[in-house]
Every structure is written in C-alpha cells, then in structure tokens.
Amino acid sequence: MQDTKKKNVVIFGMDNSWDLAVEIGKKIDREVNSIQKTTFADGEVLLQSNFTVRNKNVFIVCHTAKPVNDNIMSLLVFIDSLKRASANTINVVITYYGYARQDRKVSGRQPISAKLVADLLSTAGATKIITVDLHNPSIQGFFDIPVDDLGGQFIFTNELRKRKEKFVIVSPDHGGAVRARQLSELLENDEEIAIIDKRRTGPNKSEILGVLGNVKDKNVIIFDDIIDTGGTIINAAMALKKQGAKKIIIAATHGLFSRGFEMFENNEIIDEVMITNSTGIKNTGEYKKLKILSMADFLGRVIEANINKSSVTEVYYDYIRTNKK
Ligand code: R5P
C-alpha cells in the first residue's frame, strides 16, 4: 500500500469488537485506536476520538449484536463525533447488522427497522458500510451510500475444504437456499443441496414441514446466516437425522446464542457448530463442539481494497485461492 494513502487512514475498534479490530490491524499493518467513552449517570453515552481525525479516512470495526440497542446508539454517537470532527470518510465495518431480520412488514402495522437503522447510520454521517451476510441482501438498497455485503460462505469455504469427507449442504429454510447453493458451488460439491421446508409460527418459533432433497446416509452441513435462539437449526438437525443423515455439522455466520450454547454442546445428534467472530462470542475451551472462525484476514483484505480503491469482488476469489491447500 502506498504510504500517503496509509497515512490518511485511521482504524478504530469499538469495545465490542476490539480483539477482531486488533487482528485486522495486524493483517494490514495498521495501528488500531480505541475510542474514548463516557457513560453518564442517566445512561447516556459520549464517544469521541482522542486525536484529530480531520480529513482522515476512518474505519470503525464494530457489531450491533447484543445489547443491540446500546451498541447501535454508541455507534451512532461515535459516527456523529467523527462527522463533526471533519473526518473525510467514515467507513463502518459492521460485522453483524442488528435488526436485519426486520426487513419487511410481515403483517399490518409493523415497522421496517432494518431501514430505520440504515437511515440512522447515514444521518449520523456514515459514508460507506462494510458488512457480512446481511440477513436479506436487499437491505443494501435501504442505504443511499455504498454497501459491501460480504459473503460469509467464503470464510466457511476455506475451513470446509480442509475436511476429507463429502457433505450435502442444507439450507434450514427457503430463504437461505441461494446462500447454501453458493457454498456448495464454492466447495465444488457434486452433491445436490437440500432445503428444509420451515414455517414461522410466531416470534422465535418455527415448525418443519419436510426436507426437500436426499440426505439419507450423507454427512450434512446446515448453513445459515444467524443462530439466535437455536430453534431453527436444532429443528433442522432433528429433521435431517430422521431422514437418515449421518454426521451433522452446523455452519452459521453470526452466532448470537441468545439461549446459550449448551443446547448444541449437549445434543448428541450435532457433531460440530462453526460460526465466525462477527458477534464477539468467545470460546475459552468450555465448548468442545464450538469452532469460531476469524474474519480478520477476509475483512483486512476488503478494507485494504477500499483504501486502495481496488476491486472487492477480486478479494473474494483471491481469499479462497490463496488459502487453498
Ligand atoms: C431466519 O430466517 C434466519 O435465517 C435464521 O434462521 C433465524 O434468524 C435463526 O433464528 P433462531 O436461531 O432463533 O431460530
């Protein structure tokens, strides 16, 4: 990277994403800066840079997972501070975009909160969003600023290619079929994908109507964007087992685990759960089945492409090419 371009770049890590930000900084040879944060007696927050950002191209590494509302508000306040301090560009690297599942009115009188969050980020002063596996890629269109919605399947491809076994990639619902097919194609898989026929029966509740595709005597990877309560994935795993699936691996970009990880760790039909570090979840060794893949290399390359104004699409393929064993 040219020195002049490098000098004008400042990277901040929000507290919730500090480790990932530091890892990214190492990959691209940039220092990562912390943010000065004050929380007032009434709960209000004030975030600011400790040094000038005038005319700088700023990258903020953050996520807006739990506590979603606090994380969003802190991010907005910090973006506003950068705008008022005359930053040149404000690039927000949101590894997990909270409220993405409220992307349409499912019934009358509902909000479209994914659009509201997009408006808030733009109004605060974000000039570019870099995110990973938006629940619905159409959310990119909720912004009038550029959005790089990176595919989580590239991160899983590198890991899954190391495995010797063959797998059928399964989408746990109709909405994830495209994502599952992309992963299957990246893995150059000769098996057809399978799709779980899932119906939402209420908030945080779903039921399975059937499995489309053949999983009998096959190892399967259930690939989803989010594990929240775990209901969708556990139900999918049970349905696949009933249909004769052998090994069951779960791969999901964003692990929220709102009801804890024990339901996976203690479930004998599940062999392994792979997530990325998009939500700041850590495994200090207590969970044998949980594997956390780092996004640092991938995001570092994308940030560099943004700094150098080069192609992000090429980063995708370079990333899986250079990691090919
Ligand atoms: C739904 O469409 C999403 O892709 C995920 O499958 C869902 O958000 C997972 O939620 P939970 O773990 O609570 O079932």
Descriptive report:
With 325 residues, this protein is α/β, with parallel strands linked by helices. It has two domains: 1-150 and 296-323, Rossmann fold (3-Layer(aba) Sandwich); 153-293, Rossmann fold. It contains ten helices and 15 strands. The protein has helices spanning 3-7, 18-27, 68-84, 113-124, 153-160, 177-186, 231-242, 262-265, 296-308, 312-322, and strands spanning 9-13, 32-33, 36-39, 45-48, 57-62, 89-94, 128-132, 147-150, 168-171, 194-202, 205-212, 220-227, 248-255, 272-276, 290-293. The strands form three sheets. It has a seven-stranded mixed beta sheet with strand order 11-10-9-12-13-14-15. Strands 2-1-5-6-7-8 form a six-stranded parallel beta sheet, with helices on both faces. The longest helix is centred in the first third of the chain and has 17 residues, at 68-84. The chain is globular and about 60 Å long. The mean pLDDT is 95. The chain binds ribose-5-phosphate. Ribose-5-phosphate binds at residues 101, 135, 172-173, 175-176, 204, 224-233. InterPro entries: PRib_PP_synth_CS, Pribosyltran_N, PRTase-like, PRTase_dom, Rib-P_diPkinase. Residues 163-254 form the Phosphoribosyltransferase domain. Residues 10-125 form the Ribose-phosphate pyrophosphokinase N-terminal domain.
